[in-house]
Amino acid sequence: MGDMNFTGTNAVSIAVSILPLYPAGAVGHFANGSDVWTGEAVETADMEKTPDGYAYAWTKNAIIQRTLTLAPASPVAKILDAAISAQQTRIGIGAEPFTVTVIVTHKHSGQVDTYVNGALTSGEVGMKVQQDRLGNKQYTFKFSEIVIKY
Fold this sequence. Notes:
Blueprint: E1 5-8, E2 12-19, E3 37-39, E4 45-49, E5 55-59, E6 64-70, H1 75-89, E7 99-106, E8 112-123, E9 129-130, E10 133-134, E11 137-149
Antiparallel strand pairs: 1-2, 2-7, 3-6, 4-5, 6-11, 7-8, 8-11, 9-10
């Protein structure tokens, strides 16, 4: 992985690498009062019942989706905005989006979750204004796998 960009709270630190755009540098400013790194459940199997009563189950490949929430002044938000803008202007030109790796270190347990082979799929480009303040920014990533080290 080399140099990663760490940002964190008391409970977790998160490193983000967006290659080749953002291999190193300081990252900071999680959004106060919000969930920092969230995701949807991963569905890895399914089951159906036929009209004659037989049940069939199978496994399937699943994409892991996670959302990062940052404060509007976060330096990494500018990098993520740039990545989204670059991907948007390369539609039909570039074969692949930027390669994303995210490492989440849980400080209290020592568990390290490494999300690999990812893509930045959406984000709130530019500044949001909510009532009388700038709003938090959310960025969504999809990964092909996660490696968990306990």
